[in-house]
């Protein structure tokens, strides 16, 4: 969560992904998992819509994963983190 106490160095590295839900639909979330700082973490993330691709954010290093979204609508994320993103998943609603 970003708030007034978020360090400025962290804010400078942040990227915003804006998906215009009136025009485009999220159709794939992909990335890589691998070793970083002696931990297995999500090392990169990408988001694709029917109009744009955002990312990769991070370094594409490790095992590739992909969550194609068809016959469903993206509803949200869930995950687990410590110092880094350890796991990420998506909630989907049937269409």
How would you characterize this protein structure?
It comes from Mikania micrantha. This protein has one helix at residues 8-13, and strands spanning 26-36, 39-49, 53-58, 63-68, 72-81, 85-94. By secondary structure, it is mainly beta. The chain has one domain (26-94): Aligned Prism (Vitelline Membrane Outer Layer Protein I, subunit A), CATH 2.100.10.30. The strands form 2 sheets. A 4-stranded antiparallel beta sheet has the order 3-2-1-4, with no helix packed on it. The longest helix has 6 residues, at 8-13. The mean pLDDT is 86.
The proportion of residues in beta strands is over 45%
User: How many separate helices?
Assistant: 1
User: What is the gyration radius calculated from CA atoms?
Assistant: 14 Å
Second rung of CATH, namely the architecture = Aligned Prism
What is the H/E string? HEEEEEE
CATH superfamily name? Answer: Jacalin-like lectin domain
Helix percent reads: under 10%
Low-confidence segments, ≥5 residues, pLDDT <50?
A: none
- Describe the sheet with the most strands: 4 strands, antiparallel
What count of domains describes the coordinates? 1
């Amino acid at each position: 969560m970003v708030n007034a106490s978020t360090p400025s160095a962290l804010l400078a590295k942040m990227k915003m992904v804006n998906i215009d839900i009136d025009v485009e639909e999220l159709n794939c979330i992909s990335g890589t998992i691998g070793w970083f700082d002696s931990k297995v973490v999500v090392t990169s993330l990408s988001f694709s819509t029917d109009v744009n691709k955002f990312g990769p954010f991070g370094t594409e290093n490790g095992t590739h994963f992909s969550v194609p979204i068809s016959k469903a609508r993206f509803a949200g994320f869930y995950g687990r983190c410590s110092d880094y993103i350890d796991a990420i998943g998506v909630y989907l609603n049937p269409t």
